[in-house]
Amino acid sequence: MLPFAYRVFQAIIQEHTFYRAAQILNVTPSAISHSVNQLEKELGFSLFIRNRAGVELTPDGQAVQPLIQAIVNAEDRLEQAAANIKGLNAGSVRIGAFSSVCINWLPPIIQNFKQDYPAIAINVEQADFTEIAAAVKTGRLDLGFSALPVNEKLTVLPLIKDEIYCITPADFIPANRTTVTASDLADQNFILQRGDYDKDTKAALDHYQIQPNALRFSIDDQSILAMVEAGMGMGILPELALERISGDVNVYRFDQRFYRTICLVVNSEQAKAPSTAKMITAITSYVTQKYPGKVLQHPGAL
Q1: 47-56: string of b/e by CB count within 10 Å (b at 16+)?
Q2: pLDDT class for 85, splitting at 50, 70, 90?
Q3: 1, 60, 135, 152: least CB-packed within 10 angstroms?
């Protein structure tokens, strides 16, 4: 079976400290240190650097991390396959998602999934599009939600087109009373998440020639609404982000419509794991039922 040191290595990367790695593996910190020392001795180089924030990988550690991750993932797939043969439907699935998917999609998806597969453990990590794709590529996550285009070489399943809206203070009404135009946006400040500025939000801002000095950045979607409500500027948010957040604001379409395409990204090796395949089916089934006629690709496309 898999050397314990590999599990330790991955736990330290996940938790950033030896102490928290020991907690999740239910061993003592000294056992973690001993395991790392033994692995470093076998490999012939140091794997971690200690600093005030915890620990981080050395350049040599970064070089072997994808290889160790692949070994851990292969072992997990073997255990899942054996469990399925025995009828246990066991295993785990690691999902990466951005904030609006975490809030609006994952709770019902996970609730339904756990009813069908109670023995499969689910771990969720919230991150931005780029971080999710990178983690899926290395195999640290099994699958993730992102937005097109995806630069990493991954299996990509487009799900839906999510329209992007302009959020304004409650007392703002566009000149044509229906959609926001370039003249409405002149001399306005905009509030958005920094992680959104390099994708579809930037396309809308560039179309209306909004300059960088007119931008303000917030930490999450609800904070954007609160700042717009306070009259600090306008916001730009996709439809999914507006489903469960509220404020005393107005929501308008742009006169030229903009969309982001939400997609699933999957590591092709991890897609072979029974638990990952089951979760992909659960996700695509949920999206198909929630948005009838709007799903961009057949759920069986993966």
Answers
A1: bbeeeeebbe
A2: low
A3: 1
176 pLDDT above the threshold of 90: yes
Q: Give Cβ neighbours of residue 26 (< 8 Å, ≥ 6 apart).
A: none
Cα angle for residues 216, 195, 124 (degrees, 5° grid): 135
Q: CA–CA separation, 143 vs 271, rounded Å?
A: 8
Q: Tell me: the pLDDT tens digits for 50-62?
A: 887 788 899 898 9
Give the residue carrying structure tokens 């996700």.
Answer: 283
Sign of torsion over alpha carbons 20, 71, 266, 62: positive
**What pTM does this model have?**
0.73
Average pLDDT, integer, range 71-80: 81
Using CA atoms, how far apart are residues 98 and 94, in angstroms rounded to an integer? Answer: 14
| Residue 206 in tokens | 């560039």
More confident residue, 169 or 246: 169
Cβ neighbours of 215 (radius 10 Å): 17
| Structural domains of the chain sorted by starting position, each given as residue range(s) with its CATH number in brackets | 1-88 (1.10.10.10), 160-260 (3.40.190.10)
- Judge residue 186's burial from the number of C-beta atoms within 10 Å of its C-beta, 0-12 exposed, 13-18 middle, 19 or more buried: exposed
